[in-house]
């Protein structure tokens, strides 16, 4: 045992870094390769406006992916974030547009709504022992219905650019002179760093990994597993709330009844980024990179003449590849033990 | 040996239908290694679970360091200094060694977990124990032996005064066991009280100071290790009267053909070079202690687990069995010890379960011939005397004994000539047990050949024509029923290796 090993900061060797750093690096390369590939084959793709629109499309998925990484690492899943996002956006937007609430208050409602649904998911899974798949499938349906009720069945348009209370759109895209800048990317990166810290250097993160690693052993270690299990879903709900703000800011109108399938892009991104489908392993940075793979495919494929449907097929195949890598890695680890 | 640190007196514990602990006494002194021995189900683990707060005792008292205590969970026991090193390791494979050792009591700097300090403390701990493990290594990358060392280090970091080792050597190599013993001797020198649960007689002689023997949930006695022999201990472990008549001689004719021959079978870590023959109409008992590799052997023969080498012959013909499907084609049926997981589909009817392994016989074109299915099920319900209101009854509503009969019927419908019964009467009440025994005897008389894996000595002696004994994955003995006795079998099952 070398002295340097003992004194090396644990973050460098902690889960999600040492062994899985390689997968993150590969995903990073894939992002670069995809970008270069589409740029070479399509003149329209290699434009600043395209980059801006990829960014626009990526924020809400990236935010969902940051959050959903936590339930995924516990060995669970959160399917409610997609329809939830729409629901929170409609609820907050209705108050702003039809009730005259200030924009910040509507945004706060969106986030708190997300936290509440997250807590509900957590209680269903942790206290009532529902399988995460079922529990969050139910809340997925519930939020879908709630969204329509909140907006009385109509679409909601948060204040549009230029009108009063539209400042929140500048959080994600700010115009300086004639140029627009994807400011949202900065916030996403900061949140990735923050939640990476939470995952690797705080009790919440440590116990999230512990639960996914061996729940029984975690209980026997005297840890309040119920609480930390709920927290994983609260984090997921909180980020679905943040994602709803990004969605409200990027799109002009939010339609009730939509949102189903968003969660799959976020979960898919997380899995491509190295989150183990069976729990215990994952990193926030990896999830973000995985989201960019999905967003690049979604935006880039139409530019090279492939219809949007192909994007779904290819994304699906990339996902299978990522899950296969996870399974192979696990098999090899088992063979070595 | 120093003063008494822990006394358990008159401990009584019942579970529904089982008197698990019957006024058991046990004590540990400072600076001693105290072995706790007994057959499977003697109550050793239950006693330790009562001690560490996993189970609540019904009556009796626990005195620790002169004070009466009652722990309500492992955390309380840990905090007081009573720590158990589990047989199945409680590790979190995705966290580092240091993170595992300090789980639940992390050092913190503000809200940040101070991993640096945890690594240093863990390194100190290892240095004190003369263990060479990198605290920043991911737990899942370590060998089982090293993982166990981490568990021990974790126990010691709780300032343990009493450490319980629950079959610590079961998964360790020779070299790792040596290292473990060095650590245990170290701990003994530091005046800790150590409880050592193991089946390995040679280890008991080497490492322990005293031996307490339990049998059927009762305290039998305590001996000074160096003053007693292996036979003394075995006599205390088995000294029970057998109420049911053991078989006195084999009922299999001398010239009965060999239907199944297994040669030099190796599979995984738990099956090492196992060879045996099974004759037509024979009940071959497989005896041994927990973890002897009997179930693993059966699963390898049945194709449920991959084998590394070895040959299997059926009626003299060499066969390749790589999956349960192959095995069923060869006429082998396996009745798992865990019926609910592997044997039956509880939410399906008696009829559906009966025909499950042979459904192609009941398919007409695209459809299942319900009438034929019901008829055959009816027939087996009658011939096996299964108690069920009808063949449409869901299996979940039947008793354990009747569920077992459904599994038997399933394999009979499939025309299996070789039946492997893995713990056939586990979880079945006494009356139903007798029925299962009668049924097995009848099947053998009808020319079926049976391998019966059983951890109950009485069952082995009552049913078997011949007995194969396993220990640590190897076959350690084979005897005819006419020569068998509990002592001989137990001797083989605890053979020193």
Task: Describe the model.
The complex is a heterodimer of chains A (337) and B (497). Chain A is an all-alpha fold. Helices cover 71% and strands 2% of the residues of chain A. Chain A has a two-stranded antiparallel sheet. In chain A, helix 13 (284-303) packs antiparallel against helix 14. Chain A is globular. Residues 1-20 of chain A have low confidence and may be disordered. Chain B is of the alpha/beta class and 497 residues long. In chain B, 33% of the residues lie in helices and 27% in strands. Chain B has a six-stranded mixed sheet, with helices on both faces. A six-stranded mixed sheet of chain B has the order 18-21-22-15-23-24, sandwiched between helices. Chain B has a four-stranded antiparallel sheet with strand order 2-1-4-5, with helices on one face. In chain B, a hairpin with a 2-residue loop joins strand 19 and strand 20 (367-368). Chain B starts with a strand and ends with a helix. The model of chain B has no long low-confidence stretch (mean pLDDT 87). Chain A binds chain B through residues 1, 5-11, 13-15, 18-19, 197, 201-203, 206, 209-210, 212-214, 216-218, 220-223, 280-281, 333, 336-337, and chain B through 73-75, 78, 90-96, 98-99, 103-104, 106, 108, 111-113, 115-116, 118-120, 123, 126, 132-136, 138, 140-141, 143-144.
- N→C terminal distance of chain A: 20 Å
Tell me the greatest interface.
A-B, 35 and 37 residues
Count of DSSP-assigned helices of chain B: 17
Q: Can you count the helices of chain A?
A: 14
Residue-averaged pLDDT of chain A? 88
Relative helix content of chain A: over 70%
**How large a portion of the residues of chain A is in β-strands, by DSSP E?**
under 5%
Radius of gyration of chain B: 25 Å
Spatial shape of chain B? globular
List the helices and strands and how they pair.
The complex is a heterodimer of chains A (337) and B (497).
Chain A: H1 3-7, H2 10-13, H3 21-41, H4 48-73, H5 81-98, H6 103-127, H7 132-150, E1 174-176, E2 179-181, H8 183-201, H9 203-213, H10 215-220, H11 225-250, H12 262-272, H13 284-303, H14 308-336
Antiparallel strand pairs in A: 1-2
Helix pairs in contact in A: 3-13, 4-8, 4-9, 4-11, 4-12, 4-13, 5-6, 5-7, 5-11, 6-7, 6-11, 8-9, 9-11, 12-13, 12-14, 13-14
Chain B: E1 4-15, E2 18-29, E3 33-37, H1 44-51, E4 59-64, E5 67-68, H2 74-80, E6 82-85, H3 97-101, E7 108-109, E8 112-113, H4 115-129, H5 144-157, E9 162-166, H6 174-189, E10 193-197, H7 201-207, E11 210-215, E12 218-224, H8 230-238, E13 258-267, E14 271-279, E15 283-287, H9 294-302, E16 309-314, E17 317-319, H10 324-329, E18 332-335, H11 339-343, H12 350-354, E19 363-364, E20 367-368, H13 370-383, H14 400-413, E21 418-422, H15 430-445, E22 449-453, H16 457-463, E23 466-471, E24 474-480, H17 486-493
Parallel strand pairs in B: 3-10, 3-11, 6-9, 9-10, 15-22, 15-23, 18-21, 21-22
Antiparallel strand pairs in B: 1-2, 1-4, 4-5, 7-8, 11-12, 13-14, 13-16, 16-17, 19-20, 23-24
Helix pairs in contact in B: 8-17, 13-14, 14-15
């Amino acid at each position: 045992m070398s002295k340097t090993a003992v004194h090396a900061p644990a973050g460098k060797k902690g889960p999600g870094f040492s062994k899985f750093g390689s997968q993150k690096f590969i995903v990073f390369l894939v992002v670069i390769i995809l970008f270069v590939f589409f740029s070479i084959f399509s003149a329209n793709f290699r434009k600043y406006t395209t980059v801006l629109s990829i960014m626009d499309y990526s924020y809400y998925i990236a935010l969902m992916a940051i959050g959903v990484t936590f339930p995924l690492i516990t060995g669970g899943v959160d399917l409610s974030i997609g329809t939830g996002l729409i629901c929170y956006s409609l609820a907050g937007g209705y108050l702003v547009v039809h009730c005259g609430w200030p924009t910040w208050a509507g945004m706060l409602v969106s986030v708190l709504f997300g936290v509440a649904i997250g807590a509900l998911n957590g209680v269903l899974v942790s206290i009532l022992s529902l399988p995460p798949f079922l529990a969050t499938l139910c809340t997925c349906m519930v939020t879908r219905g709630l969204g329509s009720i909140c907006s009385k069945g109509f679409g909601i348009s948060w204040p549009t650019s230029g009108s009063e209370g539209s400042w929140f759109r500048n959080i994600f895209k700010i115009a300086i002179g004639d140029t627009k800048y994807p400011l949202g990317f900065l916030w996403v990166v900061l949140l990735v760093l923050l939640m990476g810290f939470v995952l690797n250097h705080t009790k919440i993160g440590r116990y999230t990994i512990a639960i996914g690693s061996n729940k029984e052993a975690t209980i026997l270690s005297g840890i309040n597993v119920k609480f930390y299990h709920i927290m994983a879903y609260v984090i997921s709900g909180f980020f679905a709330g943040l994602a709803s703000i990004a969605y409200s800011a990027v799109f002009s109108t939010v339609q009730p009844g939509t949102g189903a399938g968003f969660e799959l892009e976020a979960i898919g991104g997380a899995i491509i980024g190295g989150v183990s489908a069976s729990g215990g392993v994952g990193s926030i940075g990896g999830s973000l990179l995985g989201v960019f793979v999905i967003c690049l495919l979604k935006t880039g494929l139409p530019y090279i003449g492939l219809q949007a449907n192909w994007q779904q097929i290819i994304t699906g195949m990339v996902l299978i590849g990522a899950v296969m890598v996870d399974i192979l890695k696990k098999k090899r680890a088992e063979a070595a033990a | 040996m120093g003063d008494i640190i822990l006394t358990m007196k008159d401990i009584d514990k019942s579970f529904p239908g089982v008197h698990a602990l019957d006024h058991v006494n046990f004590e540990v002194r400072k600076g001693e290694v105290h072995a706790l021995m007994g057959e499977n189900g003697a109550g050793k683990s239950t006693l330790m679970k009562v001690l560490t707060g996993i189970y609540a005792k019904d009556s009796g008292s626990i005195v620790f360091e002169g004070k009466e205590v009652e722990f309500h969970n492992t955390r309380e026991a840990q905090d007081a200094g009573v720590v158990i090193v589990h047989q199945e390791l409680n590790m979190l494979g995705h966290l580092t060694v240091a993170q595992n050792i300090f789980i639940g009591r992390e050092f913190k700097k503000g809200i940040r977990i101070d991993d640096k300090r945890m690594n240093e403390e863990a390194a100190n701990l290892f240095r004190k124990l003369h263990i060479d493990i990198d605290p920043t290594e991911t737990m899942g990358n370590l060998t089982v032996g090293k993982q166990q060392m981490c568990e021990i280090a974790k126990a010691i970091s709780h300032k343990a005064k009493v450490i319980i080792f629950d079959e610590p050597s079961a998964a360790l190599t020779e070299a790792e066991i040596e290292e473990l013993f060095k650590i245990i001797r170290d701990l003994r020198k530091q005046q800790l009280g150590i409880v050592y649960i193991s089946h390995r007689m040679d280890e008991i002689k080497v490492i322990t100071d005293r031996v307490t023997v339990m049998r059927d949930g009762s305290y039998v006695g305590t001996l000074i290790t160096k003053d007693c022999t292996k036979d003394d201990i075995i006599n205390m472990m088995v000294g029970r009267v057998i109420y049911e008549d053991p078989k006195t001689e084999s009922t299999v004719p001398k010239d009965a053909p060999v239907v199944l021959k297994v040669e030099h079978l190796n599979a995984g870590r738990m099956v090492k070079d196992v060879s045996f023959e099974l004759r037509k109409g024979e009940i071959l008992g497989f005896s041994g202690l927990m973890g002897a590799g009997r179930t693993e052997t059966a699963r390898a023969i049945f194709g449920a687990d991959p084998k590394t080498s070895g040959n299997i012959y059926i009626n003299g013909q060499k066969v390749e069995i790589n999956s349960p499907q192959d095995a069923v084609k060869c006429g082998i049926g396996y009745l798992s010890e865990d019926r609910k997981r592997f044997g039956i589909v509880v939410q399906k009817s008696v009829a559906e379960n009966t025909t499950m392994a042979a459904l192609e016989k009941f398919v007409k074109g695209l459809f299942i011939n319900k009438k034929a299915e019901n008829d055959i099920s009816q027939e087996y319900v009658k011939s096996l005397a299964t108690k069920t209101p009808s063949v449409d009854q869901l299996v979940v509503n039947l008793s354990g004994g009747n569920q077992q009969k459904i599994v038997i019927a399933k394999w009979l419908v499939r025309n299996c000539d070789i039946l492997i019964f893995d713990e056939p009467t586990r979880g079945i009440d006494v009356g139903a047990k007798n029925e299962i025994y009668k049924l097995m005897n009848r099947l053998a008389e009808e020319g079926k050949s049976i391998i019966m894996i059983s951890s109950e000595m009485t069952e082995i002696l009552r049913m078997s024509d011949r007995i194969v004994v396993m220990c640590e994955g190897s076959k350690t003995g084979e005897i005819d029923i006419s020569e068998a006795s509990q002592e001989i079998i137990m001797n083989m099952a605890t053979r020193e290796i």
